[in-house]
Amino acid sequence: MNVKTKLKTLSIITATVYLLIIVVFVVNMLRFDDKQITAEYNFVYKMESSIKEALIQDNYDDIKSQLSKLTDEHSLEIAVDDGEKVIYSTVPHKVGMNHFDTVNKNAVLAESQTSLETPYGVRNVWYLMYTLSDTEVFGSYFANQAILMVIAFVVLSGAIAYLGFYVIKPMIKIRESIEQASNFNFETITPDTDAVNTEFYQFTGKLENKLGLVSRQYTELEKQLQINKEHLKNTLVVSRSFIHDLKTPLHQVILENDFYLANLPYQSEELIELTAINNSVIEKLIKNINEVLLIMKNDVYQELKDKETIDLEVLMYEVIKMFNTHIKNKKLSINLEFDNDVHVYSNKTTIRLLLHNLISNMIQYSKENSEASITVFETSESIEISFKNDSSEENIKRMKMSESIFNSIPSNDNQFSGGNGLFLIKDLTHILGGEYSLIQSDSIVKVIISIPKE
Predict the structure, then answer these.
(1) What single DSSP character describes residue 168?
(2) Buried/exposed code over 333-368 (b: 16+ C-beta within 10 A; e: otherwise)
(3) Which whole number is the average pLDDT over 340-362?
(4) What is the pTM of this model?
């Protein structure tokens, strides 16, 4: 018999016993009045039989002894004489005295005055039985009800004990098993005879197998992550090499400019000035390349700690100046609006790179012969820069695609961009602790960044 069947049998037996106890209990209550009548009748019958038994004795002392015992043990009065003298009396009595109706009827259960013929003569007897006490009437009734309650308690205790063995005990074990499972100690979980613990044991076994599989997959992912880290590391090394190699042709241009200028038979002031401008631009590019290489070489967040006070208006004009030719080719009109004296305390290289990508993005996706605007304003804790331009539907689509590093933009004709402009802008803004947003309304596109003042 399994546990489920046992519990069902226990429930049926317990319910049946309790139903029987309730029926008996209720029947006893309904027969309460009958109990009183029966008790009184039995008492009267018993006393009359005992009195009669005592009176048929020959020896008066025996009569007195038996009647005295009755009056000592029960609530009654007796007076007996033989017509000549009083044999026994609990009240003042004389031969021939009538005691009938001398006691309050409310206190009387039964009363009788009669003469009894015996082999030893006539016995004149009067007896009065007082109303029975509650104990005498209901003692057996309450005893029976108490026995029923005791039986009910015993049955309930037995059912609880049985339930505790087959239900509470498994619940305690399942709680311990859940605690072990939460600590991943699956080997300490053992099966049991009850269904709950057996199913939980099977569940934890499956869970352990799944965790083992996930753990192996996680190990494979760790290996793949390590491979990707090495790949990224190698890529950065190659990238640094490529960027570093950019300085060589720039140095070569400076040397060639100086060499050709020195070997010219006639050096005009315009040519000298143009050469100086070219060399100055090249030197700035080399400086920017060195700053980028420094960030790539070291921890970017460590390099960001190298801060200085930056005049955003001056830096903005410097960056825009680098795009003058492309602005003229697209016939763009750029409006700049600055709050007075806007400064930010941050890493200059990162700010310049961010502005470079923002301006490049704005120029790249603007329509020809359109207007663009750059607005810089200061709040209590940050600097907000807004880049607004009019763009085509196709360019807006490309711009949104450039927000993700994993999107490949087809037919990208921007020679200053790798196709992930907005992703780089968003990433640089977050590195600086700022916020980025892209807003589009029809053909108008607005990129807004907010960076901390310090």
Answers:
(1) I
(2) ebeeeeeeebebebbebbbbbbbbbbbbbbbbbbbe
(3) 86
(4) 0.43
